[in-house]
Amino acid sequence: MTNTAMDDAGRCLLSVAWNIRTGGPRADPRADAVRERLRTVCRELGHAACRFAAGDSGGDPVPLLRLADRAYEVDTLLLLVGTSLIPDSGRDLRWWGEIEALAAEVDGMVVEASAVLGGVCV
Question: Which of the ends of the chain has fewer CB neighbours closer than 10 A, N or C?
């Protein structure tokens, strides 16, 4: 029996990974590195969640959904930094501060999500 809540959470992570933007009008290696990390953790944990759901009816999907939400939020902030009509270094610094704080939280969220799936490492 498939755990549909966990399967849905896995597919949500896969959707976020698929939709994380690449490049942009003002390509930034720093932003690209953050996006690649988000894409990797969302894709790997998404596939792991779908496999887990196929074989186990338990597990809490909420940590996976929180991770998907945070990854989407960081990607949106990266879009704002990279596509402003009028570049503003002060505003960009504030946004980067927020991006770095949120991205740092992702590592803890990955540990929580991995624990739900039986210790999958990313």
Answer: N
